[in-house]
Design brief:
This protein is of the alpha/beta class and about 350 residues long. Helix content is about 30%, strand content about 25%. Among the domains are: about 100 residues, no CATH class; about 130 residues, L,D-transpeptidase catalytic domain-like. The strands form eight sheets. A five-stranded mixed beta sheet has the order 13-12-11-23-15, with helices on one face. A four-stranded mixed beta sheet has the order 16-19-20-22. The chain has a three-stranded mixed beta sheet with strand order 2-1-5, with helices on one face.
């Protein structure tokens, strides 16, 4: 072997040794550093040492989570304080794992990565945890504030008027969706405000349908001795009647026709005003003051015909509503058992 060959061989060995030593020194210099491409909960920590990585993750991940979680619906807002969420994350352990993953593989593998500029593309979890029960309680609170039962249309009667109370749709929070979106917002890097979604629930009876529920309705204005017949909640007829005298007033309130009878038998009540007739049963005929028709309302009180037409327009009865015979016959055919009777 010639001198030049020996020198060339020695130089080659020396260069190889230098490269190896350099590689070892560079690899050693990377100890404690995180490889490029490593993220912790979406935060890029590649090329950083453990302390810097931990500080960055805490700034990016935990500091925003100190803000309240909010839900909005139109102009209303609800807030869930961060402390109630009891948020926790093991950032230190996540950084240690990131460093450890960066050192995986043998020296040639790591050198190949250094020289080729390759990235690990590894996502490390910081084991974020929080109180899901706090989120669930928050959703229930929002739902309790927002939700309402559907209200059916109804009728508010007066002595001389029928007022329609409009229906109102109900409101139901989509609580499963709200819970899911809040859970995502707790640990995500996006907005901390979530919009509540609701859907309407239909009332059983709408405003357009309510009239059909009341084909007939009666209102009695005792002060003015006027009985009104309403058909489909529209005024159909007005009758002059007699009502109960002082001490035997026609009972105030909302009732309904309990039963109907043509040419009724009079079952005389056990009352002082009935005198010797108290407790008797008077069949149809001249001695029976209840003429032509009977529509029972409440505890012996009812609507009936009378021959004493001079009493109409006054407080003269013993609690019943008296009508002329033609009027009571007409009314009888216009109402059914169950027809509401409001006495004001």
């Amino acid at each position: 072997m010639g001198r030049k060959t020996v020198i060339a061989a020695f130089a080659a060995v020396l260069l190889a040794a230098t490269l190896v030593v350099g590689a070892l020194l560079y690899d050693r210099s990377q100890q404690g550093k995180i490889a490029d491409g490593v993220t912790i909960e979406g935060v890029d920590v590649g090329g950083m040492d453990a302390d810097d990585a931990e500080a960055k993750v805490r700034r990016a991940l935990l500091r925003p989570l100190d803000r309240p979680l909010r839900t909005v619906y139109r102009e209303r807002t609800w807030a869930l304080p961060a402390e109630q969420l009891k948020l926790r994350a093991d950032v230190g352990a996540a950084v240690e794992q990131a460093v450890h993953l960066s050192r995986e593989g043998d020296l040639p593998t790591r050198l190949g990565r250094y020289l080729g500029g390759d990235q690990l593309e590894v996502e490390v979890s910081a084991e974020l945890a929080y109180s899901r029960s706090a989120v669930n309680r928050f959703v229930r609170h929002v739902a309790a504030d927002l939700e309402r039962e559907a209200r059916s249309a109804s009728v508010r009667p007066g002595a001389d008027v029928l007022e329609i109370v409009a229906s109102q749709p109900g409101r139901k929070v989509r609580d499963v969706l709200l819970t899911s979106e809040l859970n995502e917002a707790v640990v995500g890097t996006g907005p901390r405000t979530v919009r509540a979604h609701v859907h309407e629930t239909a009332p059983e009876v709408t405003t357009k349908e309510v009239a059909a529920r009341y084909p007939s309705y009666l209102t009695l204005d005792r002060a003015n001795f006027t009985l009104r017949l309403w058909k489909d909640l529209e005024l159909a007829r007005t009758y002059t009647v007699a009502v109960g005298q002082e001490g035997l007033e026609t009972p105030e309130g909302l009732y309904a026709i309990e039963y109907k009878e043509e040419n009724p038998t009079w079952h005389v009540p056990e009352s002082d005003w009935a005198g010797d007739l108290a407790g008797q049963t008077i069949p149809p005929g001249p001695e029976n003051p209840i003429k032509a028709r009977w529509m029972a309302i409440y505890e012996g009180a009812g609507i009936h015909g009378t021959e004493e037409t001079a009493s109409l327009g006054s407080a003269a009865s013993h609690g019943c509503v008296r009508m002329s015979i033609p009027d009571v016959e007409e009314l009888y055919d216009e109402v059914e058992v169950g027809t509401p009777v409001f006495i004001g």
